[in-house]
Amino acid sequence: MPTVWGRPNSINVQKVMWTVGELGLEHRRIDVGGPFGGLDTEEYGRLNPNRKIPTLVDGDVVVWESNAVVRYLAARYGAGTLWPEDPGERSWADRWMDWQITEVQPHLHVVFWNLIRTPPERRDADAVAKAAEALGRVWGIAEARLAAVPWLGGRRFTMGDIPLGCAYWRYRNLDIPRPDLPRLEDWFARLSERPAYRTHVMLPLS
């Protein structure tokens, strides 16, 4: 039975738990990180030398880095569904997963940490404004992709939608200016119909 180490309000843990939910896997989750602590123990250090979350233990296999965990689960348990078997189709899923980390997350991190996890008197309003403007531009790239296909990976829902689905939930629930993104909003509406997304991602920001 796969075991996921990590707390439920972490975006990176949410990616993994959403994947687990889509696959219908029996699993166990252990709260670590943030208020739960536990990252500095010898046991956890043996699993993940970075002492970050999430970490997946699946039998003898240990995987860390959230997108690597999503890929592992999709390949092992979701071949032909979450894991596209055609290399060309899979390349689209892969690139949008990486794009979430390189293009969206740096700006989203600035806004989220300032508005959600920083006391008002310590917030950097200028940094938030610049990051929010950058996010509007960046999300426009995904908006253009969805003009051509219904899902980021192509014709069907795949692992490529998972990291950005987690990021978009945060983005649309932060108190910042946002451009009109009708195709992303349609994509989000379809994500919202998925029970695993509602259970593991559509949570209050904290």
CATH topology of the largest domain: Glutathione S-transferase Yfyf (Class Pi), Chain A, domain 2
Low-confidence stretches: none
Note the total helix count. Answer: 8
What number of domains? 2
Find the structural class using helix and strand composition. alpha+beta
Tell me what portion of residues adopts beta-strand conformation.
5-15%
At the first level of CATH, what is the class of the largest domain?
Answer: Mainly Alpha
Q: What is the distance, rounded to the nearest whole angstrom, between the alpha carbons of the first and last residues?
A: 29 Å
Rg for CA atoms: 17 Å
- What does the average pLDDT come to? 98
Helix share, percent: 40-55%
Layout of strands and helices, then pairs:
Layout: E1 3-5, H1 11-23, E2 28-30, H2 42-47, E3 55-58, E4 61-64, H3 66-77, H4 87-116, H5 125-145, H6 162-172, H7 182-191, H8 195-200
Parallel strand pairs: 1-2
Antiparallel strand pairs: 1-3, 3-4
Structure description:
- This protein has 206 residues and is α+β, with helices and mostly antiparallel strands.
- It has two domains: 3-77, Glutaredoxin (3-Layer(aba) Sandwich), CATH 3.40.30; 87-199, Up-down Bundle (Glutathione S-transferase Yfyf (Class Pi), Chain A, domain 2), CATH 1.20.1050.10.
- It is 53% helix and 7% strand.
- It has eight helices and four strands, in the order βαβαββαααααα.
- The protein has a four-stranded mixed β-sheet, covered by helices on one side.
- Strand 3 and strand 4 (61-64) form a beta hairpin.
- The longest helix is centred in the middle third of the chain and has 30 residues, at 87-116.
- The two termini are 29 Å apart.
- The relative contact order is 0.14.
